[in-house]
Every structure is written in C-alpha cells, then in structure tokens.
Fold these 2 entries.
Entry 1:
Amino acid sequence: MTELNIPKTQRGLICDEVGSALKVREIPVPEPGPDELLVKIHFSGVCHSDMHIWLGEVPIKFPSPPAVGGHEGSGVVVKIGENVTNFKVGDRAGVKWINGTCLNCDKCKLGFEESCASTLTTGGTRNGTFQEYALIKASEAPHIPDNVDMAKVAPVLCAGLTVYRALKDTNVRAGQIVAITGAGGGLGSMAIQYAKAMGMRVLALDIGPEKEKHCKKLGAEFFVDPTVEANVVEKVLTLTKGGPHGVVHIATSEKPLEDAFKYVRTRGTIVIVSLPKDATLVTDIFSLVLRVITIKGSYVGSRADMDEAIDFFARGLIDIPIEIYALEDIPKVYDRLHKGDIRGRIVIDLSK
Ligand SMILES: [Zn+2]
Ligand SMILES: [Zn+2]
C-alpha cells in the first residue's frame, strides 16, 4: 500500500437526517478497502439528484448519517488498496455515482454494471464527494487524462455520462435527427454538444428567446418553444420532415413527453432521463404498436460509456459553463437549483 501525507480528519458537508440543515464538520478520512482508491477530491459538481436525495424525494437509499452527498468528483489518487492494479498513487481519477458493482452477475457480465443489484453508490449508499477525501472501487473509477481541466470535467462524471448514454440509447445514427426536451438547461446543454459530436442533427425544445440563442450557439439546428407554438407536434414534424428519429427527454414536466410520442418518427425511440416526482406514463398502445415506437429509460451508464464520455470532453468537443462555489455554499446552490436559475453547472472547489 502506497500513501502520501494524508490527514486523519477532513472537512465534509454533513447531513444528519433527511432534509436536515447541512453543515461543514470535521470527519475522519476513510480508509480504502483492498480493492478501493482513496481520492483527494479537487472539484465536485452539484447534481439535481444530490438535492433530491438530501430531501428524500427519490426512492434512493440515503447514506447512513453523518451522510455526505455529491457524486461528480474529480481528483487525485492518494492511497490504494493492496489488490489495486489499474491505478497508482498520483493518478487522476473520477468518483462517480456508481461506486462499486459485483462484476459477477449477468448484468455486470454483459457490461450493464449500472443495473447491477449490488451497486454501491457515491452519496447514496456510501459517503460522496462533498468531502475532501472519498472512496471508490478501483474497478469503477475512470481515469482522467492529464490535459483536462479538473473543474470542468467534474460535471462530465454524472451529467455528461447520463446524456451521452441516453443519446446512444436512442440508436440515432450520424446524419439523423434527435430532439432534446429541456435542451437549454445544464444536462440539455451537454446533450446538444454530445449529439453534435456524435454526428447527430439536433432539434432543441425549451422556453424563451434566450434559451433559443443558447441552444443554437451550442449547435442545435432547430429550436421549438412549446409555449409559443400553437401546435408543437405539427411544428416539429414540419421542421424535421416527418419527425426526429429519436428523442431524449430531459425536461422535468410530462407534457413534452406526450408531444414527443406524437412527433417522434415512426420506428423512432424516446429515451427518458429526467425523474419527475411520482410521474407515470400513459401511452396510446395502438400508436405504439403500429408506429413501432420504443420508449425506454436510461440510467447513468457503464464504465465504457464513462471512458467514452470523458474522451469526447478531453478532445475539446464538450464545454459547459461552470460557476465555482465553496463547500459551505452548497445550501445556497440548492436554493438556486430549486429556483431553476442555473444555466450551466455548479462546481464545488475542494482543492485548497
Ligand atoms: Zn447526478
Ligand atoms: Zn453485478
């Protein structure tokens, strides 16, 4: 086991129970198990899911208190367990939502580790990246290339991975059209860029002229504002000459999904990423069958997807505006997330 000069305690943003006040406290630095990495976190993105987990709004297990959230951490490996062979101390590594899997079940064997029934999750079943030192199984940690910006790569570890995999799940090929609902937000902005980088043509849906300017600047070919168009479905069908080949649903309301079902091209695929609370899906089965429409969920991504998503970023194809905050500012960040006034992504600086 190799180690640097690691302190015994560290600063972490602690939550004592679901929805309780979040306070920065001194907590022990965890010890890596035989197949784990201890990563000195430099930056951590703040994901919507962190807020929902903290508020108990999603059916996800809350870490046992004192709980630490956060699952978009970029940093440097400072200690490795005795069985680790794919990382050494000093390597840059990511700490993402899927923190460990069994690697032996049928899902894991097929490369769908994110669907493994025995996953460990960062800021879910174990403490996350809103602390200075975090653990991850070496098998689940992505390498972060030396040339990339450590602050900007943090959101790629969840937001980037999620939209990249969702785009793959649409089966839209280069030259075909993908529609993205909620395209002007943090996830949507990344989705537009990944789609472009994958050779897809993009139809962005969002509200307001500012979002239109933003989406088009990122590479959207078409923009539709559902609050302006009298008939959204007709408009999309006309612009795309028969409907987009796939849809990635990122908006948190259900209406855009109903529209998508009507405008998606026959034999097209709708991929749902967003998790509106208590939402259900009712579809017209007759159209579903006769138009051979696929509706599916997409949940983060595999280890291979993670490496690919980081590679697109490292090649300079993905950029996301970030705002940098301190650890104690996370409650303020949640306020802003709640109000929906964040354009890109908030990243917490833990490097000092
Ligand atoms: Zn996330
Ligand atoms: Zn498994």
Entry 2:
Amino acid sequence: MLEKIKSPEDLKTLHSLEIKALAREIREFMIEKVQRTGGHLASNLGVVELMIALHSVFDFKKDRIIFDVSHQSYVHKILSGRRDEFNHLREFGGISGFTDPLESVYDVFKVGHAGTSISTALGMKTAKEVLGRNEKVIAFIGDASISNGVAFEAINHIGHLKKNLIIILNDNQMSISQTVGGFAKHLSRFISGKFYNTIKQDLESFLHDIPVIGDSVNQTIKNLKKTIKKQITPNIFEEFGINYIGPIDGYDVEQMIKIFSNSDYLSDEPVIFHVLTKKGKGLKEAEENPTFYHGLSSSLKKKEDSFTAVFGEKMTEIAKKDPKIAVITAAMTDGTGLNQFSEELPAQYYDVGIAEEHAVAFAAGLAKEGLKPFIAIYSTFLQRAVDQIFQEVSLQEDINPVFVMDRSGLCGEDGPTHHGAFDIAYTRFFPRAVLISPKDGRELENMMEWAKDQNNPVFIRFPKGGFYSFPESKAIEYGKSEIILEEKEAEFTVFSYGSLTGEAYLMKDFLSKKFNLVNLRFAKPLDMETILYFAQKKLPIIVVEEHSLAGGVGEAVASLLMEKGFNNPFLRLGLEDYYYPHGERSLLLQTAGLDSKNLSVKIARWLA
Ligand SMILES: Cc1ncc(C[n+]2csc(CCOP(=O)(O)OP(=O)(O)O)c2C)c(N)n1
C-alpha cells in the first residue's frame, strides 16, 4: 500500500481497509528506519492516522500546515513524497528530522524550537486575508508545546483578531517526559471518563446528522458548542474566543476526515481540534517507555562518556551535600542528564515545562531568597531567555545562578535549529557575567564545584558527546587559564576554549612544528596576563572555539591584543557565518575544520 502513495493525492481514493493497511505499513516503515538512523520515533508513531486524515482533507501545497517543533513531521514527509529519503534521515546530506521548505513545497518553516506554530500560522492567515486569498492555515501543536509562553501569547492574540485559523492540538499527554503543569491538568479534565464519553456521544450524533453544506451545519455546530460549553466550562480555548471541538479519537480516520472536512462551518472564527493520540502507538516498547523513544540515537553510533553524563552525576553529588542547591530544567530532564537527579532529589528539582524564559526568572526568584540555582538548558533553547538573563539576573547585584549550557557547539543530527553556536555572543556582553568552558569531564566537575561558590552569574558551556581526557586538571581560579603546552621551540601559540582544547592538543600528532597551547577556561574575564605573556613571544596566535566566530572568544582576544598594542599574526578558527547542517557530530566537526586533523591542515596552510 505504502508503495502506491507517491503524493497526498493518492490518499483520496483509499477505502477504510486500505487506510488501515497503510497506517500499519507506515508504522512498520518508521520503526525499521528510525531505529537505525535515530530520530523522533515515539511522537511520529502516535500521529500516523491523524496525518493521513489531514492529508486526505487538505491540500498542503496550497493550504499550509505549520508543525510546532516539527519533530513529529515524519508521516507528513512520507506522505508528501519523501519516503525514499528515509534511509538517510538526519544524516549529513540526507533529509532533515524537522520541516524544511528547501526540502519540499509541503514544508513551510525550518523550525525545531517549541511554541511558535500558532503565531506564524496566525501571521500567515492574516496575510492571506490581506492579499485576498482563502487557503486554510493549520497550526499543528503538541500538548506540551502549547503550554509554552509564545503559544499562549498567540492564543491571546487569536481571540482578538478572530481569524479562521485551525489549530490541531495533538494531545498524547506527554512532553519528552511527563507533561508538567496546570495546563496539562486542564486538558486532562476534557478527557477524563465522564466528560469524554458524553462529548464523544455528542460528536457522534453531530457527525451522523451533519449535512454536506449550509446553514444547518452552522446551527448543528453551534448547538454542539453550547453542549460542550455547558459540560466542561471553563474551557480555556472557548474563554479566549477559540471554538473548541473535541476530544477527538486520533485513531478513527473516518471520523477525523468528516470533522476536518467540515471545518468551513466556522468560516470567520478560529477553531481548535483537540485530538487524542498515544506516544509510541503500535510499538509496545515505545508505548511503555515513550521518553526513551522520543529521540533515538543512531544504532550505528558508538557510545562514549559524555559531558552530559558527567554533569548529571556531579550535580547529584553537589546537591546532596547542600540543600540550598536547586536544579532547574525546561522539559529536558533526559537530554540534560538529570534523570538520576530528579529521582534522587525531587525536592531540589524543578522541571518547569517548555518555558525557558520562565525558568530563568523563576531561578532568579529562588536566588533572591537564598537558594543557589543551577539552570540546565541547551545553549540553543536558552536563546529564548536572553532578556531574563539581562533583567532578572545580570542587572541585579545579588542574583547569581549557574547556567549549564549543554549542546553548545555543533549538536549533530538535530541540525541548525539545535546547534549551540551563539551563547558566548549572547551572554558575554552582560556585566557581571562569567563565562567558562571545560576541556574535559574532570574539568567540568571542577568548574561546577567552583561555580557554586561564586557571587556572579556563571555560564558553563559544553558540547554534546564526549571529550579527550587530559591526565590532569589544575584547580580553577577566577579568570585564570591553564597552560597545557609551552615549548621552547614553539612556532605559534594556540588559545583554545572548551572541549576543542583536546582537538588542539592532538594536533601534535599531525604537525611537525612545535606549538604552545593555552586552555583559556574563561571567555570572560579573559586571562589577560597569560594571553599577553604569550603575545610578547611575538609568535603567530590562533584562537580555536566551537562557536560562531562573530561574537566569539576569538574576537575578545583580538580586541585585547589590539588595545595592548600587539600585532602578532592572528587567526580565528570556529564556526563561520552560515548555518551548519545536520549530520553526525564528528562529521560536522570535520566539515567545519575543527577536528585535530583539519585544524592542523588549516594552520599549516596559514603559516606557510
Ligand atoms: C524552546 C524549546 N525547548 C525545548 C525543546 C525540546 N523539545 C523538543 S520536543 C519536546 C516535547 C514536545 O512535546 P509535545 O509538544 O507534547 O509533542 P510530542 O512530542 O508529545 O508530540 C521538547 C521539550 C524545544 N524543541 N524547544
């Protein structure tokens, strides 16, 4: 059956048994492919029927579907002609794990951060109206992402604009881990036994009675709305002026097709379809452990010690000794290595949901009253909270949390939405900020011990995955770097920041020339004394970092040298001024020229 589906058009002629067979084949296909390549399996297994229904009703070449995060767009990709590309899902040069308009006309935005779909969909719907076009626009959003602040802002605005936007709320009652918060509870009330059954009956009779077009449709829906309102007031969506239809069984394709086909009845009003699905549907292990199956790593990848694991273990050790330590994550318990912590120290642990801005402001409140917060958020997601870093943290003299920015640098298969390329740039300019990065696991532990006692906000950055382990790591001192190689015969000096110190050190295996190597440790404050000491040797200077060159530590070193009147030949190596694609991290590092071999080649050429 799957073989026959070359485009969504081919769905239109299928009868119900064929649809069932197709759904089964899509699941088998994804289970086979994604277990090998890695990717977001559980979310996609849950939405197979829902995607078939949507693609059967709408024409997404004209109508638009904007996926929130877009990690759940695999079935959409399969149905829109990209099935054959799944052998190379998320691989370098292969298709993305997220939507990407460069990949297909069926995709609208290149996204991977949560909470924005309703806003962009509302903007598109508004623009279409201004331009006199009447295609449909759909925001497809999960129950965890809809509780993000940006989504709430959009919901507030839709109620005001009253555009006929369609929201599909895909409610599987899970984020990556359990969905947190009052909103999840509010949604679950719609589903709980009594409400769900009565509404289900109403929906069924509504569908039974529904005529094809006309006024009576409007009347029927209005009656249904009244009944729903009576039964489950308050319904947050209705209160905000959005028509609520649901809960809808996400595995009954025929029913969904009927409901979505009649979305015209509310031609001038926004509507939300609340669809119930199950994460991991059809794969027993994934249904039982949806968190593990949310984002699988490639089965071909070798496992290694990671900064993330070191962080999680050390965090638990530190917090056990000090009840004033509080650890905060924004829906990323698993990704930030905090599973053990959350189980062993629940009273010191706060998962705030997909709410990075809130996480930082909340941590500032904890700090104000005397706790020491560690905020563990991926570099790319912390971008959301720059204003809270400014106002609630840096601007206050007494708010000094520790920020732990995992996935700083090239993150690998998740690609450009998830690479952490900008965190030095967006934190360094804040007064009082202290920026550090460890060369290896042991240094990360030392930095965490050190950071907890500082009276400044401290930002620790480290990348995904493993590191080269150095035999020793000297004690951390404020604003002090660590000299790793100082050679009499050195022909150049390398300053490295973070885990690229390992790659820089290993250049000794490729280069015949001797060099000095300084592990900067601090991007702010810079270790002026050591930098100038090496500058005085009049050797060429190279700064190496896994960060955007624009706004990176290389720029900071360059301005220091200029201000102090040095004019050593100077080279910065880091991430260039474009977005790096998805692919295996080691391959991306090579492509960026930041592994030991490529660094050696670049430097040798530059020196020649
Ligand atoms: C701003 C931001 N923070 C965190 C994440 C990481 N993240 C990706 S998917 C996801 C859970 C999404 O849950 P939900 O919206 O319910 O969709 P589901 O996977 O259950 O279909 C999270 C937290 C993100 N993509 N963006």
